[in-house]
Each structure stands twice: as structure tokens, then as C-alpha cells.
């Protein structure tokens, strides 16, 4: 149902891959921690931090492929009432709003990122400086911004498809 | 303009944006930020926007969401749902409407390792619908069984909706999982009762031959891997051995391991499951980010407090207030998607619910049940669309007509939850 721009767009393809790796790392670290704790009574030092960081990587890198596929969850009640032309217009508005919102997010995130660097904020268990994590978040943000531009281009070409099972729970 | 009016106006504009096909997360986020700007200043909105995404994306407590989704995706890719269905159909053979009952039973069981109603419905549509069609079941009855069974995944733990409810209300996910178990089982039994009544009253289902007793006993061994996963994950949480995040990781890893050992999962299948999990999880995280911004605005408008004061000054009894909330959820459920509905409404309603002396864990179960009802309520029941998307030959009118008797089951359970709250609160009280 969803368009799959990853076939042609290497940026979202790579971001999807990184997000998948982060999810795998998250699972393996927790399982490894449980096994090592149970068998050898040696927990993995910093498992809590690694899970938090992996989640951050998965989320900020995984949003771009969702956006590029127009996979955000929408209520498609309007489909029954409006012609394709209007639906395409609404999709363009959504993509434009996304572009503006992420530009705002980017601007808004500069101050807390600089604070993390200035004040030397560190993670709880491993004591890793937090500013590189903000850099990761900014990298993801650039990808999301790019994905919204792709979505905008797609929306200008054709109306969105109805959401399918990938979009809900 | 008072903050109360601003709050109500914000919610109204957000609903209009949702109707105008704007993504749920965008509608929530934009209203949250603009509302914050209107209430305070641009700098205040900027501060919230600057920290929310990072905070949500690195919140350890939310790591349970993608991990349970991964477990469900791997279980689906390993065709565990098919094995559950095959076992259930042999065990229930000979009963009139046995395939429909098998669909409900297998859906309930699959929901216990999947956590996603939509994934359960999608998977069962592919597995059970062709079988029921071959056996001569009417399409409407078959589709309604799949839709109702699929919705069980939301209530029977692990439930993604309950994890998200727990994270936004700071309620223990383990307690929520314990609280939803018995209502989930009761709902399964109610659905079975409805399916049996419909099967005996009409001509929707044919008579089926019964399998020998020995075959039925042997069929119980079929879905052993499901039992292993269920005991590991939910049993592990109930026993206090695993935190929800640990249980979800072990479940995802265990599902992959079992899939490889039994040859039902390939590396490609695993990669597909991981990729799908990322997409579903991130679509949810976007809504959580939007909802966090929105909730921040709603709290500042003091809308929940004002509504609570209004309800108290109107001399309404606690059950009357809850009844109003339930009706609002049922109406919203006809039009809104489940996660969005929870994230929009819970920040507004929870203070009122607590203010009237209800337990937030009990309310969590009630909300999950109402979301479940919304999944099969026309006109926008997500499960109905999932079935229709995969079986376009099933007419929508037929589907709407056939699902109506099944709507009685969750409504009865809502009444039971009101009359006997301990149905939800008993298990957590003895476990924790």
C-alpha cells in the first residue's frame, strides 16, 4: 500500500538500516545482560545506557523512512468526502507543515545541545558525554527533513494511498 | 480568552486537522506548540520543542514498545499464528461454527505473544478466512470472527496500548498487564458465546465433522512454542523475574530462535520483521512526541482541573461521570485511530477519573477495552478495513452487519468492569 521510496532514495534506505541495527543491538544487549547476570552473575556494565542510546538512534533514524513512505498514522475519514485533487492538496499541506515543524525542531534543539556540551552532561551508568547524542539527534533530524522534502515531492505528484496495517496497532 | 476556552479551542482545531487528513502526530504537535506559544511565549514553545523529541526518543521506559512489536513481527513471520489456528481448529472440530471459534481462540492466543490487534487481524485474515470460505462459512460471519478475534490483542497482555498508557500516566506496566489478563480472557469467552449463538441461530455456518479424540489431544502439542514464549514473557513479568523491557527482549530473541530452530524463519524473514518493527515503532513514536507536546499544552490550560470542578459542581455521581467518559470514547472510537485516541484523551480524562476515586490501572484496562471496541465499530473500525484490504470481495455492508452481534461482547465487559472492578484489580493486588 505505501509507496517505497527506499528503492530509489539511498538516504532513507541507509537510515532505515541504521535504525534496524539499533533495534537489534537493543534486543541483544538486554538478552546478553540477562544471560550473563543469570549464568555468571556478571551484568553488562551500562546496559541501561546502551538501551537508551539505541532507542534514540532507532527513533531519530527510523522516522525518516516512515515519513518518506507517507507512513504516518492518519485518519482517512476525508477520503470519502473529498475528490483526489483536494486530497492531494491536503497531503501537500501536511508535508509542508512537516518541513516547517522540523525546521523549528532543529532551531529549538540547538540551545539544549549547546547546554549539554557546555555543562558536560553525562549519561547515568557509563558517564558518556551527552553532546554526541545530540549530534546523532541532529543527524536524524536532517534525514527527517530530507524525507519530508521527498514526501512533498510525492504529494505534489499524486494523492496519498489509504493507510494499511503497517500504520496502526 | 480564558485558558479553558483556549484548551477547548485547541482540541477542536486538532480534531478538524485530523479530519482534514493531517497526520495524527502533526495535528497534536502543531496544536501543542502553537497553544504553548499562545499561552506563554515563542521561547517557551521553543524550549519544549527542543527537548521533547530527544527526551521521548531516549526514554528507557519506552524501549519496551519496539521490542514487543519486534516480537510480534517475528512471531507473525514465523507463521506461529497459523500453527495456533491449526491446533484450535482440530480441538474445536465438530462444534457448530468450530472454525469461527478456532479463529477467536487462535487470535486470543496470538494476541498474547503479539501485542498488536492489527497484526493479529491481518495475520488471521490470511490464515483463517480462506479456510472458512472453503468450508462454506458465510463471508460476513468469517470476517466478523476475524475482526473480533483480532481486537483481543489490545487487551490480552502484552498490549502496546497499555505500555503507552503506562508511560504517559506513569502507571506500572507490569500491573497493567496483570490487570488486563482476566478481562481479556472474559472477553474471549464472551466473543465465543456470541459466535456460538450466531452459528446456532442462522445459516452462516455449515456442520463440520469432528476429529477423533486422540487427534484433539495431539493437537494440543502443536503450538508448544507459543506456550514457551508466553511463559517466558508474560509469566516472567508476572513472576517478577523480568521487567517489561527484559521480557520483550527475551520474547523477541526467543521468537527468532524458535523460528530458526523450527525452520519457519529465514534470515530474510528476520530482516523483514526488523524493518517492519522500525516502521511501526517510529510511526508510534512520532505520535508520542506529538502527544507529549499536546499534553504539555493541555495541562497548562488547566482543562482537566476545570472539567473536574465542573463535574463536581454538577453533583454528578462517580459512575455518571465515568459513563459520560465511556460514551465519549465510544463515539471517538468510531472515527479515531486507537493510539491517537488514547494519547489525546488520557491527559484530559485521567485527572477527572482519579479525582472521582477510580484506580488508574482499572481505567487503563477500560481504555484498552474501549479502544478494542473502536477497532471493530463501524464506520472506521481499523480491523474491518484490514480484512477488507486483504479480501476485497467481502462487501462492507455485509461486514458492518455481521460485526454488530460481536459489539455486544465488549459492551457487556464494560458493564462487568463497572460492577466488578476486581475483575481487573484482583490479579495485580495478589501479584504486586
Describe the structure in your own words:
The complex is a heterodimer of chains A (169) and B (432). Chain A is mostly helical. Chain A has four helices and no strands. Chain A is 68% helix and 0% strand. The longest helix of chain A is centred in the middle third of the chain and has 35 residues, at 84-118. The model of chain A has no long low-confidence stretch (mean pLDDT 88). With 432 residues, chain B is mostly helical. Chain B has helices spanning 3-19, 24-39, 42-57, 64-77, 80-91, 98-114, 117-134, 139-151, 160-169, 173-201, 213-219, 224-238, 244-261, 267-301, 303-313, 318-333, 338-355, 360-376, 382-390, 396-419, 422-431. In chain B, α2 (24-39) runs antiparallel to α3 (42-57). The longest helix of chain B is centred in the middle third of the chain and has 35 residues, at 267-301. The radius of gyration of chain B is 22 Å and the shape is globular. At the A-B interface, α1, α2, α3 and α4 of A face α2, α3, α4, α7 and α13 of B.
The largest β sheet of chain B comes out as: none
Overall pLDDT confidence of chain A: 88
Low-confidence parts of chain B = none
Form type of chain B: globular
Q: Helices and strands of chain B, in N-to-C order?
A: HHHHHHHHHHHHHHHHHHHHH
Report the radius of gyration of chain B as a whole number of Å: 22 Å
How many strand segments of chain A?
A: 0
Residue stretches of chain A low in confidence (pLDDT < 50, at least 5 long) are none
Largest interface: A-B, 65 and 73 residues
Helical coverage of chain A, percent range = 55-70%
Question: Main β-sheet of chain A: number of strands, strand sense, barrel status?
Answer: none
The span between the termini of chain A is: 16 Å
**Which strand-content bin applies to the residues of chain A?**
under 5%
Assembly state of the chains shown: heterodimer
Distance between the termini of chain B: 47 Å
Percent helix of chain B: over 70%
Give, in order, the helices and strands of chain A. Answer: HHHH
Rg of chain A: 19 Å
Structural class by sheet pairing and helices of chain B:
mainly alpha
Structural class of chain A: mainly alpha
Shape of chain A: elongated
Amino acid at each position: 500500500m505505501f509507496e517505497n521510496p527506499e528503492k530509489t532514495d539511498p538516504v532513507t534506505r541507509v537510515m532505515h538500516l541504521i535504525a534496524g541495527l539499533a533495534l537489534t543491538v537493543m534486543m541483544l544487549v538486554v538478552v546478553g545482560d540477562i544471560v550473563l547476570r543469570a549464568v555468571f552473575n556478571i551484568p553488562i556494565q551500562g546496559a541501561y545506557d546502551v538501551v537508551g542510546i539505541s532507542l534514540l538512534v532507532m527513533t531519530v533514524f527510523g522516522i525518516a523512512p516512515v515519513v518518506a513512505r507517507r507512513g504516518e498514522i492518519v485518519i482517512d475519514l476525508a477520503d470519502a468526502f473529498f475528490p483526489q485533487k483536494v486530497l492531494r492538496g491536503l497531503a501537500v499541506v501536511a508535508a509542508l507543515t512537516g518541513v516547517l515543524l522540523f525546521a523549528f525542531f532543529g532551531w529549538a534543539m540547538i540551545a539544549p545541545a549547546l547546554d549539554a556540551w557546555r555543562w558536560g552532561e553525562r549519561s547515568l551508568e557509563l558517564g558518556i558525554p551527552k553532546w554526541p547524542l545530540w549530534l546523532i539527534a541532529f543527524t536524524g533530524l536532517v534525514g527527517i527533513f530530507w524525507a519530508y522534502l521527498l514526501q512533498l515531492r510525492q504529494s505534489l505528484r499524486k494523492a496519498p494511498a489509504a493507510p494499511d496495517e503497517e500504520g496502526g496497532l | 480568552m480564558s485558558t479553558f476556552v483556549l484548551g477547548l479551542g485547541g482540541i477542536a482545531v486538532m480534531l478538524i486537522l485530523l479530519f482534514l487528513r493531517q497526520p495524527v502526530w502533526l495535528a497534536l504537535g502543531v496544536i501543542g506548540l502553537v497553544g504553548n506559544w499562545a499561552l506563554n511565549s515563542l521561547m517557551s514553545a521553543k524550549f519544549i520543542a527542543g527537548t521533547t523529541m530527544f527526551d521521548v526518543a531516549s526514554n528507557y521506559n519506552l524501549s519496551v514498545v519496539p521490542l514487543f512489536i519486534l516480537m510480534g513481527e517475528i512471531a507473525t513471520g514465523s507463521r506461529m499464528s497459523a500453527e495456533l489456528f491449526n491446533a484450535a481448529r482440530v480441538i474445536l472440530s465438530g462444534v457448530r461454527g468450530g472454525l469461527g471459534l478456532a479463529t477467536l481462540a487462535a487470535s486470543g492466543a496470538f494476541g498474547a505473544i503479539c501485542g498488536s490487534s492489527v497484526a493479529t487481524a491481518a495475520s488471521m485474515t490470511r490464515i483463517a478466512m480462506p479456510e472458512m470460505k472453503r468450508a462454506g462459512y458465510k463471508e460476513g460471519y468469517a470476517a466478523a470472527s476475524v475482526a473480533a478475534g483480532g481486537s483481543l490483542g489490545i487487551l490480552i497482555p502484552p498490549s502496546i496500548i497499555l505500555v503507552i498508557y503506562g508511560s504517559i500516566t506513569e502507571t506500572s506496566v507490569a500491573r497493567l498487564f496483570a490487570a488486563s489478563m482476566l478481562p481479556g480472557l472474559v472477553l474471549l469467552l464472551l466473543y465465543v458465546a456470541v459466535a456460538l449463538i450466531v452459528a446456532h441461530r442462522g445459516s452462516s455456518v455449515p456442520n463440520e465433522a469432528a476429529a477423533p479424540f486422540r487427534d484433539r489431544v495431539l493437537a494440543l502439542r502443536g503450538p508448544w512454542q507459543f506456550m514457551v514464549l508466553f511463559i517466558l514473557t508474560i509469566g516472567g513479568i508476572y513472576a517478577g523475574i523480568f521487567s517489561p523491557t527484559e521480557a520483550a527482549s527475551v520474547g523477541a530473541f526467543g521468537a527468532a530462535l524458535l523460528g530458526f530452530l523450527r525452520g519457519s524463519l529465514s534470515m530474510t524473514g528476520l530482516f523483514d520483521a526488523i524493518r517492519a518493527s522500525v516502521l511501526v515503532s517510529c510511526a508510534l513514536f512520532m505520535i508520542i512526541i506529538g502527544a507529549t507536546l499536546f499534553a504539555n499544552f493541555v495541562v497548562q490550560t488547566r482543562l482537566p482541573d476545570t472539567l473536574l470542578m465542573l463535574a463536581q459542581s454538577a453533583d454528578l455521581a462517580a459512575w455518571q461521570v465515568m459513563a459520560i467518559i465511556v460514551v465519549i470514547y465510544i463515539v471517538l472510537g468510531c472515527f479515531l485511530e486507537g493510539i491517537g485516541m488514547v494519547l489525546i484523551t488520557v491527559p484530559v480524562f485521567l485527572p477527572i477519573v482519579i479525582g472521582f476515586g477510580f484506580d488508574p490501572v482499572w481505567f487503563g484496562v477500560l481504555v484498552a477495552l474501549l479502544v478494542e471496541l473502536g477497532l471493530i465499530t463501524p464506520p472506521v473500525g481499523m480491523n474491518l478495513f484490514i480484512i477488507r484490504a486483504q479480501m476485497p470481495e467481502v462487501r462492507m455492508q455485509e461486514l458492518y452487519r455481521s460485526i454488530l452481534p460481536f459489539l455486544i461482547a465488549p459492551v457487556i465487559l464494560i458493564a462487568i468492569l463497572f460492577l466488578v472492578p476486581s475483575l481487573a484489580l484482583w490479579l495485580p493486588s495478589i501479584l504486586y
